[in-house]
Write a structure and sequence with these properties.
Number of helices: 4
Strand content: under 5%
Number of strands: 0
Number of domains: 1
Helix content: over 70%
Structural class: mainly alpha
């Protein structure tokens, strides 16, 4: 949990600190997942349960949840492109 907080602080808030090469990629994935939680109740519940420490401290989403987030974001991206084409 502390590591993810550091990644978000550096990625979103431009905090200064040690930044391993993989922090940027991890933040981008986190940001995509978090974006999908805004309108997907299943993803939102998973996220809230872990960040509230109600469930395991190992907040790695399952492949199924990652696929759900990717599918959600792909549909949103396509809808946005279609709306821009009109």
């Amino acid at each position: 949990m502390w590591m993810m907080n550091a990644i978000v602080d550096i990625g979103a808030h431009r905090a200064q600190g040690r930044q391993p090469w993989w922090y940027a990629s991890a933040y981008q994935l986190f940001d995509q997942f978090l974006g999908a939680t805004e309108s997907d109740a299943v993803l939102a519940e998973w996220f809230v349960r872990r960040t509230s420490l109600l469930d395991s401290l190992y907040p790695t989403p399952s492949p199924r949840l990652l696929a759900r987030a990717i599918q959600h974001n792909s549909r949103a991206w396509l809808a946005q492109r279609r709306a821009g084409d009109h």
